[in-house]
Each structure stands twice: as C-alpha cells, then as structure tokens.
Design brief:
Distance between the termini: 60 Å
Largest sheet: none
Strand content: under 5%
Helix content: over 70%
Number of helices: 5
Radius of gyration: 20 Å
Number of strands: 0
Order of helices and strands: HHHHH
Shape: elongated
Length: 133
C-alpha cells in the first residue's frame, strides 16, 4: 500500500512541470499564430468559439500523448516483468481516472493562452506581418 501511495505521489508531482510545459507550449503556439487567429476573428469567429477551438486542440494533443504514454509504459512494464512473474490485471477504473486527471490538468494549463488569444485585438493581429511574406 505504501509503495502504491509513493508511486502516485511521484506521478502527481510529475504533473506540475508537465502542465507548465503544456501551458508554455500552448502560449508559444498561440503567439506564433496571432495573424491566423486574428483572421479567423475577422471572418466572424466569436471569442468563445476561438477558445473552444484552442482547447479542443489541447485536448487532442493530451489524449494522444496520454494514450501513447500509457501504451509505451505498459509495454515496458510487460517486457521487464515477463521474466519474473506475470503482470496483474490492469485496474481500468484507475487508468481512466488518471487519464481524466491528465486531461483536466492540461486543459486548465492551455486555458490561459486560449483566453489571451481570444482577447487579442483583431486589428493588431491583422497588422502583423505574415510569416510567409
């Protein structure tokens, strides 16, 4: 029981730097796409829709990353423990709750840059030089 608690506390403490990385990555992505986001707003996209679009993108990245991470970790655990003893059956409720916590934390981390992008002035965003020009 103590080993499981220690494992979960280490995993939870690893969420903090990862959430910071997701937030900064989302912030950099939105700053790099200011012209595109301003164009969407100028074409009639509402601020709430823009926030939803950026949050859905963060959700997509989080789900793919979580599934790949759990898949690779499961494969590594299986290969390490195959020689000693068989793996216990996975607790699907616990795995689903961990993925749910990951999604919630990373969506909250990506919410701040999404709200900042929605508050940007459309005219200033359109005045930026296009990166391809």
């Amino acid at each position: 029981m103590l080993a499981a608690t220690t494992l979960y506390s280490v995993a939870a403490s690893a969420l903090v730097p990862h959430a910071c990385a997701v937030g900064s990555s989302a912030s950099i992505r939105t700053m790099a796409r200011r012209h595109e986001l301003a164009t969407l707003r100028a074409c009639g996209m509402r601020r709430a829709t823009l926030v939803l679009l950026l949050e859905l993108k963060a959700l997509w990245i989080t789900v793919i990353g979580a599934l790949l991470g759990f898949g690779i970790a499961s494969l590594a655990a299986w290969s390490i423990r195959q020689e000693s003893r068989p793996l216990p059956e996975p607790d699907l409720l616990r795995v689903a709750s961990v993925i749910g916590v990951l999604i919630a934390v990373f969506l909250l981390a990506a919410l701040v840059p999404a709200l900042q992008a929605a508050r940007h002035d459309v005219a200033r965003g359109l005045a930026l030089l296009h990166p391809d020009a």
